[in-house]
Specification:
This protein is an alpha/beta fold. It has 13 helices and seven strands.
């Protein structure tokens, strides 16, 4: 996905949020913001927004000396989601379709994203509202059909906190399709950026005890196929199916022709326009480019 004019205010808002969080000195804050403003004048608009974001956060980190300003916030949301895990499992098992409910929870959890909004998220309120939510783009049944003929699945994770909902979805896939002997591997970011999930978060929420988890070697808030490490590239190429969580991964993978399921919550006008879905929508989309040569 190309960067659009809608993306610039979002990148500036992210800059101000991160600068405020990581730098206390007002003069240094101004220096950081000025550096970002200068950088934004040079960007290539054919570049996906998360790739620009990687460079933006690198600039701020160099000035602040703080490579992970969202560290404590990520732990907070991991802990809040983990505290609800037993309740989430009960909700899933009491539903008519446990795998579908787990999928809805996973996508709804994508709202925990400080890249698109700095507003705090009440995790418990998110769970309470799930029964009223449905997928605006709903290819879940196709997903289940595809799952029946696939085994090797690569799951591209997105944010801390949200990873707990992903863990539940993965648990349900493994539990309800034991005859498939599914091999699910999860990919996390190679370094801290915003509240994106890293290996530390995956370990904290117990995901590493459930399935193999690999770091992709890159700190973009997305999956940059030009920068991921050899292990992740091999896993991406060899996967029968890819589950892509979040807007960032969608923005860098939307032109691929692999069997990818994009699971995300629409959080900005650019994505809303591209998907023809209102902001706030839950999306479970089979890649429309699949099988296109």
């Amino acid at each position: 996905m190309k960067t659009q004019h809608h993306c610039i205010p979002c990148l500036l808002r992210q800059t101000i949020d991160t600068v405020t969080l990581s730098i206390t000195d007002e003069q240094t804050q101004k220096i950081a913001i000025d550096r970002v403003l200068t950088f934004l004048q040079t960007i290539d608009y054919s570049t996906p927004p998360p790739i620009i974001g990687r460079e933006l956060y690198k600039l701020i980190s160099e000035i602040s000396g703080n490579p992970d300003p969202y560290h404590d916030i990520k732990r907070k949301y991991n802990q809040a989601a983990l505290a609800l895990y037993d309740d989430l499992r009960r909700m899933v098992f009491h539903s008519a379709d446990p795998v579908l409910m787990a999928a809805k929870l996973s996508v709804a959890g994508n709202i925990i994203d400080f890249g698109t909004s700095a507003r705090p998220v009440q995790v418990s309120s998110l769970v309470d509202s799930i029964s009223q939510l449905d997928f605006t783009i709903n290819h879940f049944n196709q997903f289940i059909n595809d799952l029946l003929t696939r085994q090797n699945i690569l799951y591209l994770a997105d944010n801390a906190g949200e990873i707990v909902f992903d863990r539940l979805f993965i648990e349900m896939l493994l539990r309800f399709y034991p005859e498939k002997n599914l091999k699910i591997s999860v990919v996390v970011r190679g370094g801290p950026i915003i509240n994106d999930v890293t290996m530390e978060d995956a370990e904290m929420v117990g995901l590493t005890k459930m399935v193999p988890v690999m770091s992709n070697g890159d700190s973009a808030p997305a999956t940059d196929l030009n920068r991921i490490n050899a292990e992740t590239r091999q896993a991406f190429t060899g996967a029968d199916m890819i589950i892509s969580k979040g807007q960032g991964n969608y923005e860098t993978l939307d032109r691929e022709n692999r069997l990818i399921y994009f699971l995300l919550r629409v959080k900005c006008p650019a994505i809303a326009g591209q998907l023809s879905a209102p902001e706030g929508s839950l999306i479970f989309q089979r890649n429309p480019n699949y099988n296109v040569v």
